[in-house]
Amino acid sequence: MTLTDTNSWTGIREVLLRRIHDRIWQPGEQIPHEADLAEEFGCARTTVNRALRDLADSGLVVRKRKAGTRVAVNPPQRATLTIPIIREEVESIGGSYRHSVLERDLRPLPAMLHGAFQVSLGEDVLFLKTLHFSNERPYAFEERYINLEAAPAARDLSFKEVSANEWLVHNAPYSHGDLSFFAVNADDKLSGKLDAATGTALFAMERITWAGDLPITHVRLIFAPGYRMRTEI
Amino acid sequence: MTLTDTNSWTGIREVLLRRIHDRIWQPGEQIPHEADLAEEFGCARTTVNRALRDLADSGLVVRKRKAGTRVAVNPPQRATLTIPIIREEVESIGGSYRHSVLERDLRPLPAMLHGAFQVSLGEDVLFLKTLHFSNERPYAFEERYINLEAAPAARDLSFKEVSANEWLVHNAPYSHGDLSFFAVNADDKLSGKLDAATGTALFAMERITWAGDLPITHVRLIFAPGYRMRTEI
DNA sequence: CAGTGGTCTAGACCACGAG
DNA sequence: TCGTGGTCTAGACCACTGC
What we know:
2 domains; Arc Repressor Mutant, subunit A
């Protein structure tokens, strides 16, 4: 039998978890106060607080001042996705990375993005089309708009050596962003670039990042066939 | 000008964040010790610790005992996805939810899953095909295997009233799982079910959950065209 | 070995929000 | 209003790991 150290916050978390799993505390039911639990475990309230805060972060319990802590009725699955820069992703699975800039020009922001990506009216943005390779096979196709107000230095860069992806991470840190995942069919152009039959379902990701109120970049990545985004929960 | 409260851990986190964004602390550079920062901010080390721990959780700094805290060189994007049960997802966007069980039988586990989903040899698993609707329009198609050793009560349930999705959340809590996302083409069967032209790219999710060593369920969800999984970072 | 983060404690005050 | 969680403090000991 495994003994759990009930003097560590992780140990206490395990015990609480087991009580929830074993239905000793029913979904929706209020569990004892921090103070009572601290007494039960013979530890400081801070320690119980840490354990409960962790359970709340993962969605298993719901905490409210005055109302106490309740076991979540429908614990949502929370999964943390780690999205590395593509070079690191490729290299981490043992591939050799290369990228190729297919297009690069200044242009007005397409109307489609006016709502989500508010740059100053009339300002051009830097547009890039890039193909990423793993072991010389297409890995992902990227279309990107860069707001030159947020990253003026990008105007003079070709992004042939360092990908825009990587350069922006280092030179235009964002404060927040929107991220979405979806599926697209390979059209004729994509099909040639990604070495996929026309019509093949491809996994895609779209991302907008801001530094405060200033939009930095909008990027759409479309991955070669077979790509899976994985995580553990 | 906005003043930041440097006596709260969130306030301290903001200040540290700004120093990283403003390159006062360069990527890869070691930042001051907790004790020094605590002195600078005139607060307890615990408070600085909380702020730094939070930055480390989000991947912006890397902390090591003895080696100190460094600004991450390639801060990975971490995104937390919240995956609710489908009924709640549908209802949260104002739809009325319904589901329909298309198939339900006991069968041996398909060979394809033998590696990932280790049930006792020769034991049958419960197989379910379900279609989820939002406002009477197809929302997602589900294929699910349930390990009856982990959830024996499932053997006697039709899952016509409560979906397997929801029942399992309430009755077979998992301790951990694998989750992946990918894209598939609608085949003829899917196309009819999801009201999508054959070949349409569809967003799909696959999930296996365990309770300790015991596999609980394997589920593949394929969403109707246009589905996006969104999150903020 | 010794510096650094990780954690625990006992106590305190505060903010929120249910009743 | 007042119970409950949220947070802060000052101090302590410990665990890891680079040197």
